[in-house]
Amino acid sequence: MQKITEVCKNLGVHTDECIPFGFYKAKIDLNIMERYADQPDGKLILVTAITPTPAGEGKTTISIGLGQGLKQIGRRPVIAIREPSLGPVFGLKGGATGGGKASVYPQNEINLHFNGDLHAITAANNLLSALIDNHMFHGNELKIKTVTWKRTMDMNDRSLRTIETPLRKDNFVITAASEIMAILALATDIKDLKRRINNILIGYNEEDAPLFVKDLGGADAITLLLKDAINPNLVQTVDGVPTLIHAGPFANIAHGCNSVVATKLAMKLGEYTITEAGFGADLGMQKFLDLKTPHLPKTPDAVVLVTTIRAMKSHGFAKDYNVEDMEALEKGIPLLEKHIENVKLYGMNYVIALNHFYTDTDREVDYVMEWAKANGHPIALSKAFAEGGPGMVDLAHEVVRLAEIPSTKTSAYNPTDVPKVKIEKIAQKVYGAKEVVFSKRALNQLERYESYGWNLPVCIAKTPLSLTGDPKQIGFVKDFTLEIQEIRPSMGAGFLVALTKGIMVMPGLNKRPRAVEMVIDDHGNLID
């Protein structure tokens, strides 16, 4: 690897704008945006995927590989992706640094503490909790009756879903799903960060009037804990493509996109910015386009839709997705078609990236490639894991072609729609639901928020494993009912979170978590 100071220099980042964290990681001082204010923005490429399966889709691997492929054909790419959370790292999912020859380094440092961003977010979140409880302990001048703010920790720990302190009952959410994470990901600078923190809803008083951080105080102290965390982190791929990894909200229970500041910076520094949205086009892509894009200077110039033969066979109910199964592959194709439909719904130019696995047979690959061409879908066979940049040249050329074709972004709903209608339109148009059923609690909450004038965008928290709200209903499911159990305001982030039935904002570890399988050597290095 190059020293990170060399990566900064080659990228056009001055010495006083590059803040090294060791030899191979750095933060970029956001003051750089003033120097690049008049620099035209590069092309923006959004990577999404079909509904994930245990077979793996490799969306991050393709994102990294596409950057390598663009470098291979003489372009100047910058990758901008999310930070990993410790919960998945020690649980089932693992890290978020790609794989094989399409990886970013240093992997273990990125997957663990990185540059301290998630710890800062956790501390800021819990400082607010401490301030709320302290205010109530010392007389409760604001007459706080109901506290809606939750504590957080960056770990899967189901035991913290419900706790009780001497003052009150409380809950923890995982840091990646906290509103502070969403705020950091959407804030455009320190001033905007403080404004959003002041707008956080902390609860209601005895007259059921909403209370905010600006009523309680402490926004400056909370912002102070985040003043370094808002600076994007810079690392590199195995072949030196600069990569900004910053902010990591989950896409099933949060909005699933890397930070606005990192994406905007990447578009100033590079000819092509490759970014990704979490999970499938029903979740991450929808949230990227409806919740993040309004804070960017442009909409994506092209969308890359990642799929694998293994995943499509899994959604086609294959007994073993590692062996050839043409019948299951054929049955899995309609799910891919649904995600293509979602991309078209938003008016985006797209290309399918068929992420190649060594278990794929020539017959299966030929079938998918011929199906795509017969139905007019641009497609490229992608071999990022095995070959790195050289295996991504076809996709890179197709992305360059598509990025020159104008697209017109639309949405599943109108900004003037009330939140209930927005939820219904997303569920029906993007997920394919027949109807949406709201719990009595959710309806009462919507009525209350409407009385406050909170006509905000919506962020639906739903399982990533199905188009429906039931993770067991795989494949292309039609005419189902989506149940909404609760609506939580994220006033600092600027949206309402609609929780589907059964969704958990504090995950638990799986029966055999990765943490118990990890082995380190005598120098503290993780042995793969």
Characterize the quaternary organization of these chains.
Answer: single chain
Kindly, what is the distance between the CA atoms of the first and last residues, rounded to a whole number of angstroms? 19 Å
> What's the CATH H-level superfamily name of the largest domain?
P-loop containing nucleotide triphosphate hydrolases
Mean pLDDT, rounded to whole units?
95
Which architecture name of the largest domain does CATH use? 3-Layer(aba) Sandwich
- Largest sheet, described in full? 12 strands, mixed
* SS-based class: alpha/beta
General description of the model:
The protein is α/β, with parallel strands linked by helices and 528 residues long. Strands 1, 2, 3, 4, 5, 6, 14, 15, 16, 17, 18 and 19 form a 12-stranded mixed beta sheet that branches. It has 3 domains: 288 residues, P-loop containing nucleotide triphosphate hydrolases (Rossmann fold, 3-Layer(aba) Sandwich), CATH 3.40.50; 109 residues, 2-Layer Sandwich (Domain 2, N(10)-formyltetrahydrofolate synthetase); 82 residues, Formyltetrahydrofolate synthetase, domain 3. The mean pLDDT is 95. A hairpin with a 4-residue loop joins strand 9 and strand 10. It starts with a helix and ends with a strand. The protein is built from 19 helices and 25 strands.
